[in-house]
Amino acid sequence: MTKRSNKSFIIVMTYLMLIRVVLNITTGISMFNFGFLFDIIIMMFLVGFFGSLVRYKTSQKAFYIIVIVFFSVVMIVDVINVSYFDMITSKSNLFGIDRLGEGNTKEYDLDIPFDIYVSILLGIFASYFIITNKKLDVFYKKDFGILSLFFIIVASIFFVGGNYNFDTKDDYYKSDVYLYKTMHDSSLFSEKYGYFNYHILDLFRGEIKINEEEAYENINTYFDNKEEHVTNDYSDIYAGYNIINIVGETLETRFIDPVLTPNLYMMLNDGYTFDNYYTPVFQQGATCNTEFMSLTSISAVRSNHTINNVCDSYVDNTYTYALPNQLESIGYNTYYFHSGYEWFYSREEINPKFGFSISKFQEDLFDLGYSEFHDRFDTEMIYFLDEFVNYDELFYIDLLTYSGHGAYNQEEFDIHNGRVEEAYPEVELNPEIVNYMEKLVELDNLIGLVIDKLTINGQMDNTLFVIYPDHYPYMFDQEMYSEYIGEEIGSPEIMRQDLIMYATNMTGEVISMTGSTIDITPSILNLIDSSLNFNYYFGKDLFSNMDNYVLFSDLTITDGSNYYNFNDEYTGLLSEEAILDNILYERIMELELQKELLIIDYFKKLDENEE
How far is CA 82 from the centre of its chain? Predict the structure, then answer.
């Protein structure tokens, strides 16, 4: 009888568990939960099972080293992902991972924690000891009897829990079963069900299967029962106005200053300012997700079943009632300009679906002979307006800026350092803050150039500006940033920003209805033409003064003052807790409905059925 030998297996398991410890230290994903136990059982079973099938020493060593290398790479990617995007990576993210090394993301200042280097060193040592081990690992059948028993127990827990019948949908959404099935919070899933288990399930999990006819009817029922949009004191007061919609890349409106950003400051104080407005971040692809939500009034969907940006996932869908489509239907020329690449987030393909008749990118300026065009400098976007806009006809222009993008160590923006010093004389600022402020100056200068261009063409007094961030500066050192703005790290309050609307006849007004990115389109349409179709929006008109709520990607909900999430963590007035609990349930139902709407390409079916 061959003597039992498990030396290499023990080395692999020891290294994998050390990875879990490092993950806890670097990302805060707790190892003091059942997920850690699940990981031990699952990995012991899988590594031992497949290791025992290999009968040749060299091949077995290769298998063990592949396991070490694979999970080492996964952990490094996850640590970076959590650091910048607050989420663990998934299979669906891999389609966009090459963007970290090309296109508009070369400037990412990726910072790998020291703990990772320690883990890599440990991985090298583990691989060395496996290579120098002269014995083949041999497992007895009773070893697998014990491991199999534990594995079956774990699998049974998942199976029983996954098929549990809940009394109400509310109970289901609050349960760990919903977390397990949707993986909507990858870090929490890893704590409760296992980090290695998360990646294994994610790797082999298939696409969502839904009954398309049933989903279509459910969505129809939802829209049929929606309250109709009601006109208000703000309806149609800017009918016939041009619109310039500016999505400010990483615009942090707390930084707007009369000296640093005089144009933004003027618009913030003289226009409509929405002070209960949030920019929920749906990673990855936060910018494209924000664009999508602002144009369609449909939420981005955080799910491991699709690429975590809706632009790539649903590029072929129909968006009949997107803002540009509706504006084009009443005579607007619709333009989209971005200084980045046209292929990034499939914008060249999805923009016509939104209703943009003209979409131009840096490639188009290079073709026109702008060989020195610099995509980082927002002021150079004025060339788009010079070359492509017809000022004699009604227009809607969407400008996606770029200067504010991290990392915040880009010396070319030091040309604006004098403005920063003028705004904050003799104040010692963190270098990242200074660089970010310099980038804000560049954005503000673009707005000044746009104002000049409209004035020259006689359109300044007939144009409505809409300006809002795509997301907060998540590429900042978060501890430094949170301290600077006076908010806790990870607090939803970080995502409270200002939505700005401005026209020259405004005299300054603060509007405090709670809202977020999905409320932008119905709000703009209310000002421009309240007779258009509001029925197919999940957002609300922010001039309606209705009760409204904001749902964040981690399923926290707020009414603008109080916060509640599925972990029963509540901040606010006790009298409002039950209300938020009920509203959270409703919003999750809507989120699931929106997911199905995108999966079945609802508006294409709707158009076909109405023909």
Answer: 12
- The DSSP bridge partners found for residue 516 are 278
What distances in angstroms separate CA 61 from CA 70, 140, 515, one per listed residue? 14, 19, 56
pLDDT tens sequence across 90-103: 776 665 555 554 44
Contact 570, 563 (CB under 8 A): yes
Q: Tell me, what amino acid is at 352?
A: P
Q: Is the pLDDT of residue 257 over 50?
A: yes
CA distance linking residue 551 with residue 542, whole number of Å? 16
Let me know how many helices (H) and strands (E) the chain has, helices first. Answer: 23, 13
Contact of 400 with 247, CB cutoff 8 Å: yes
Nearest to 284 by CA among 111, 468, 470: 470
Q: What is the pLDDT of residues 380-427, one digit of tens each?
A: 999 999 999 999 999 999 999 999 988 888 999 999 999 999 999 989
Q: Domains of the chain (ranges plus CATH)?
A: 7-204 (no CATH), 235-544 (3.40.720.10)
Name the phi and psi angles at 517, rounded to 5.
Answer: -55, -40
SS3 250: coil
| Most confident segment among 117-121, 160-164, 407-411 | 407-411
Beta-carbon contacts of 21 under 8 Å, excluding residues fewer than 6 positions away, are 31
Name the residue with tokens 């007779």.
531
> What is the band of 1 on the pLDDT scale with cuts at 50, 70, 90?
very low
Output the pTM of the full model: 0.87
Q: How many angstroms separate the first and last alpha carbons of the chain? A: 76
CB of 539 closer than 8 Å to CB of 522:
yes
Exposed/middle/buried for residue 207 (C-beta within 10 Å: 0-12, 13-18, 19+): exposed
Structural contact between residues 292 and 507, judged by C-beta atoms closer than 8 angstroms? no
Buried b (16+ CB within 10 A) or exposed e, 142-152: ebeeebeebbe
| HSE toward the beta carbon, residue 96, CA cutoff 13 A | 24
List beta partners, residue 463. Answer: 242
